[in-house]
Design goal:
mainly alpha; three-stranded antiparallel sheet
């Protein structure tokens, strides 16, 4: 639909969303779009490359992804919360809230000063930086396509190496 016919197309959509997000890292809608697409990639890849995962269903495939990148559980809950007014049943993570928060203040000139950040609040009182999670997600899917699915980066049509900070 609308230009997305397979997992590689979905990955390319994720790449476009990432570049838009890079222009405004406080744009909650851009971060949400990335989470939506990154999560939906679990279904696209799980169904299109069923033989690669050796899992009998999508739930089992996602369980393997959780073991590779635990924050997928948080992302699943963020996506579910964005689709439903109220969630019924058990969530996958201990997500409390996500959105703009006052960031750390610094008197140094290191670039660490930010008035606001997008943060994910967890039930144990800890916070996860959305920018960091998005960088990890992009890196995860890039490596997954290349290493697990044996898809050459030229076919993916996107290079993130210069933009991701690790």
């Amino acid at each position: 639909m609308l230009g997305v016919k397979n997992s590689i197309d979905k990955y390319k959509l994720l790449a476009k969303q990432y570049w838009r997000y890079e222009k405004d890292k406080l744009a909650e809608d851009r971060a949400q779009a990335i989470f939506d697409t990154a999560w939906s990639l679990t279904e696209w890849v799980g169904k299109e490359f069923k033989g690669v995962s050796n899992k009998k269903d999508l739930r089992e495939f996602r369980e393997t992804l959780y073991s590779l990148y635990a924050p997928f559980k948080i992302i699943a809950d963020i996506v579910d919360h964005s689709k439903h007014f109220k969630l019924s049943g058990e969530t996958k993570s201990n997500l409390v809230d996500a959105g703009k928060r006052e960031g750390p203040f610094s008197s140094s000139f290191t670039g660490a000063f930010q008035k606001e950040k997008l943060l994910i609040e967890l039930g144990d009182g800890s916070y996860y930086d959305v920018e960091q999670m998005i960088d990890e997600l992009i890196s995860f899917w890039t490596v997954y396509f290349q290493d697990n699915l044996q898809i050459d980066s030229r076919k993916l049509g996107v290079r993130f190496e210069d933009s991701i900070k690790f």
